[in-house]
Amino acid sequence: MSKAIIENLQSDGRRSYAGIGQAVGLSEAAVRQRVARLVDNGVMQIVAVTDPMQLGFARQAMIGIRCQGDATRVAEKLAKVASVDYVVLTAGSFDIIVEVVCADDTELLELLNTEIRAVPGVLSTETLVYLKLVKQQYNWGTR
Fold it and tell me: What tens digit of pLDDT does each residue of 87-99 get?
């Protein structure tokens, strides 16, 4: 039942609890309780997904980072950088991959030089600038 509620919210995050209840065969109150439990347990978040370009952030990039020492500690420091919106520890060519959102190339360069590369333990970076977003979806959790 929780999966059906999540799928309804993924297709329309503004859908009413009553509408979801009709679709899944529960009362409005039951849907409200289940949604609250899913949020409280960290299974899902209810957020507004924005288009960075529409908000004046013309430059997005993934940055592959090679580290020396404790990569987890480096990742935790990178996660505190305001322009970083995604941090993941990886296996392979990079120890960490971060996604950044910036106003322009000047801001990206400043971010790389003064914040990303300045973190102790960062050995090298490789920046992959986004040219065009072709697909982005958030419904993978219910497949």
Answer: 999 999 999 999 9
